[in-house]
Specification:
The complex is a heterodimer of chains A (115) and B (114). Chain A is mostly beta strands and 115 residues long. In chain A, 0% of the residues lie in helices and 46% in strands. In chain A, strands 2, 4, 5, 8, 9 and 10 form a six-stranded mixed β-sheet that branches. The chains are: A mainly beta (115), B mainly beta (114). The interface between A and B is medium-sized, with 22 and 22 residues.
Amino acid sequence: GAGVSQSPSNKVTEKGKDVELRCDPISGHTALYWYRQSLGQGLEFLIYFQGNSAPDKSGLPSDRFSAERTGGSVSTLTIQRTQQEDSAVYLCASRRTSGGTGELFFGEGSRLTVL
Amino acid sequence: AQSVTQLDSHVSVSEGTPVLLRCNYSSSYSPSLFWYVQHPNKGLQLLLKYTSAATLVKGINGFEAEFKKSETSFHLTKPSAHMSDAAEYFCVVREDNYGQNFVFGPGTRLSVLP
């Protein structure tokens, strides 16, 4: 089946603009994660969705960042009033939470450049 | 609390020689452990995983790792490096089989010299 799909793959924006990044998880995966990877750095956890439960937003770096997941499937990460330090690759991952060994499956990321 | 240490930020080997990427973890509970690989401009791909079954785990592309509880280690090895192995490698711990929190190590960049 299809893997985790992210769009856009690349986004260049001007400082102060809002951006939306989309993630379409693997069908049947109830858990969805967003991570940020800055240049040459490891992964920084942003937010976690599990089914209909309240999301874990503990990793969001500021109130300019928000995310939603509609219908338990597609998720959108929104960054308002972008800053240059928001430039990074934003990775989405999904996983099953019943059966299997629960590893994360990653998309190829959305590379955001803020000028 | 969980944490992951990858002892080398960069490892360089010659093609055809063995690879050793080191990972140590701390966890209060029985962990699940994973190695992921990231090629340039790509997402992360699972190499292998330990989830309380056999302590020697075999993965894709000839990689394997051994879970050593007494040493809290999960080092990644490969007998013979290939040029295509050049990438970033991440060691990851999840505290138990039901945990939602995945803790990533900082990564080790593997270079393979001809």
